[in-house]
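Researcher: Quick test of sequence recovery. Tokens follow.
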């Protein structure tokens, strides 16, 4: 058991902030919204968000297991790891529950008493505490080339965490986190945790956490150098509560079982003003047995991701066995190590590679491209066009015939089409089109498909 004979409570947090204020260097976030406002950038370059939901990454796996998980997700092309600093939902963990290393986040479950001890030696349990391990997990996430999307305190859909996180301690808790991770521009900060506040008191918590985070990270209430969003419950979006809040930099939606609503939900956020990046923070987990809409197989996983991306947003994947690392028995169908290489997780990189190759950041959602055959619900086909009018892309959620308005391409008469199989990454050779060839059907045997139609710019005559 840990020996908590160090500074505790408000005194400990005050000492941390004195040290913070004595440090003059302040680090701006490397992550920001693009000039268009529709996507995120890293050091000014477009950032493709393919996230994985692993809420209990800092609570359950050993160091060796952490490395196995991160190596695998890196091989699979993921770019964001979504985890929680404190899991307050009691159904799946709970604030007072000890980690696999016998640590707890707080002394006597008091948020203003983080369980911090002197030293950081992982071989010495009297030194290596809950927060030391979270430090290590975040360091390893970034060492593998990911960005961490860290939920400050996952209160849960039923609000279990509000028994501990309240308006009178929320700002100081935010300052504690901000001060601890100052100078770590790789972290994306996520407030909430599967939750829509039910009372004014609950709603008041989050602007205070945001304020404390900004003060801890920058030395003042400066939201321009902190990237924050809010993880809401299923069937909702952060925009419904916080879109105009100064601390909310981008929106996050969740659909839970109703994955057929992803495209309209994300598109609705994409079209809001003021413009902010948006996307899906949690969909239906692969192989999750809890969904009325199951099975959530590899095809459904690809549909969810492509609907998010083609609506102009980002996407976060989840696996029903991996996120809890075998600890949520009612939702366990195989071990997390077996599920780590599930078919859905393994195939998402193909759509990511396709979108990266075409320069996804130069495309905007455009439903008008599909003249006939859009489909609906679980068979919805979706399209985007380039802002220059020289290309369009279509995701076929099923082997349907779709009629496209090729007049949306304004650059020239010569057109080229290429098919890509998002299940395998197979690309078929380019074929020439004319503007009258407007009906398209995916190749035989493909369950879903990606189509790229381009209108090459006419060559200028040589002088």
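Model:
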């Amino acid at each position: 058991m840990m020996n908590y004979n160090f500074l505790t409570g408000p005194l400990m947090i005050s000492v941390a902030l004195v040290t913070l204020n004595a440090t003059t260097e302040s680090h701006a976030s490397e992550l920001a919204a693009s000039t268009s406002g529709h996507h995120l950038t890293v050091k000014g370059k477009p950032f493709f968000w393919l996230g994985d939901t692993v809420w209990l990454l800092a609570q359950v796996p050993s160091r060796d297991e952490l490395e196995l998980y991160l190596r695998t997700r890196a091989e699979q092309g993921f770019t964001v790891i979504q985890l929680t600093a404190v899991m307050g939902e009691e159904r799946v963990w709970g604030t007072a529950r000890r980690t696999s290393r016998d640590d707890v986040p707080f002394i006597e479950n008091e948020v203003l008493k983080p369980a911090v001890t002197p030293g950081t030696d992982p071989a010495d349990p009297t030194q290596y505490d809950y927060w030391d391990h979270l430090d290590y997990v975040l360091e390893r996430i970034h060492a593998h080339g990911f960005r961490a999307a860290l939920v400050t305190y996952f209160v849960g859909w039923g609000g279990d965490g509000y028994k501990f996180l309240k308006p009178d301690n929320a700002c100081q808790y935010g300052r504690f986190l901000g001060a601890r991770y100052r100078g770590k521009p790789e972290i994306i900060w996520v407030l909430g945790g599967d939750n829509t506040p039910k009372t004014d008191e609950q709603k008041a918590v989050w602007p205070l956490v945001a304020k404390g985070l900004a003060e801890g990270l920058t030395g003042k209430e400066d939201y321009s150098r902190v990237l924050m969003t809010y993880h809401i419950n299923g069937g909702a979006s952060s925009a419904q509560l916080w879109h105009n809040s100064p601390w909310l930099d981008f929106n996050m939606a969740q659909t839970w079982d109703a994955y057929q609503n992803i495209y309209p939900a994300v598109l609705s956020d994409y079209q809001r003003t003021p413009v902010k990046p948006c996307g899906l923070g949690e969909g239906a987990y692969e192989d999750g047995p809890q969904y009325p809409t199951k099975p959530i197989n590899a095809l459904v996983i690809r549909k969810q991701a492509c609907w998010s991306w083609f609506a102009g947003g980002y996407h976060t994947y989840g696996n029903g066995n991996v996120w809890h690392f075998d600890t949520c028995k009612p939702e366990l169908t195989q071990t997390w190590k077996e599920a780590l290489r599930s078919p859905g997780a393994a195939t998402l990189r193909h759509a990511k590679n396709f979108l990266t190759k075409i320069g996804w950041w130069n495309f905007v959602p455009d439903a008008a491209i599909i003249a006939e055959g859009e489909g609906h619900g679980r068979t919805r086909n979706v399209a985007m066009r380039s802002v220059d009018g020289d290309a369009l892309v279509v995701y076929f959620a099923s082997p349907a015939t779709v009629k496209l308005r090729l007049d949306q391409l304004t650059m020239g008469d010569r057109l080229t089409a290429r098919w890509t199989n998002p299940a395998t990454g197979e690309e078929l050779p380019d074929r020439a089109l004319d503007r009258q060839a407007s009906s398209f059907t995916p190749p035989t045997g493909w369950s879903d498909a990606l189509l790229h139609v381009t209108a090459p710019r006419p060559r200028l005559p040589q002088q």
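The first helix runs from residue 9 to 22.
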